[in-house]
Amino acid sequence: KTNKVNLLACPDDGVTVLHDAVFNNHLAVVKLLTQAGDLDLLQAKTALGKTAGQLAKTNVMSQFINSELKQLQTAHDQENTLRPSQQAYDKLLSRNRRKYYIPMQECEQYLFYISLLVQVYIREHTLIWNNAFISNGKKLCTNCIVDAGCVEKFSQHLANLERHVKLMSGKQNLSQLCQLYITSMKLCISFSYVIQEDVL
């Protein structure tokens, strides 16, 4: 068992391993560090207020750092959009210093319609995937690769959806019907993967 290395660890001058690798123009090392790190690593500043990107000496290094920073920032913004803060829910549900939660029955109806949409999406996704496989042999079309990428993140979307319903209803435990709809969506995506693996 190995412990995860803290890439933000640094001496008093604030120079991280990424700062050092960028400053010395070790692009291969920088690529490994950015893959292992996150947005905090790229935004970390030295005691003089310099980020790793500001220490780049070549255009290649500067372009790579800026590209990684943009991708991580976009992913970070999307995650925050998908997972609003507790304060955002409190503000939404509060009126006249009271909280008005959504009744569980309405949450059940909400999840019912979402599950129907998911089933339609997965059905269409599977048909498109299979058609692309048949027409292109072992190579998927670009649209299908993007579509498959969305499906891979589906479990995270479901976790966000479940959290959303719990916060909107004010309940830590959802009703059996709500849980049934969420489970059906999980099974739906699992079935889609089975079909794809069988085709391959």
From TrEMBL:
Gene3D superfamilies: Ankyrin repeat-containing domain. PROSITE patterns: ANK_REP_REGION, ANK_REPEAT. GO terms for biological process: DNA damage response; positive regulation of double-strand break repair; protein localization to site of double-strand break. InterPro entries: Ankyrin_rpt, Ankyrin_rpt-contain_sf, Slf1. GO terms for cellular component: nucleus; site of double-strand break. SUPFAM superfamilies: Ankyrin repeat. This is SMC5-SMC6 complex localization factor 1-like. It comes from Paramuricea clavata.
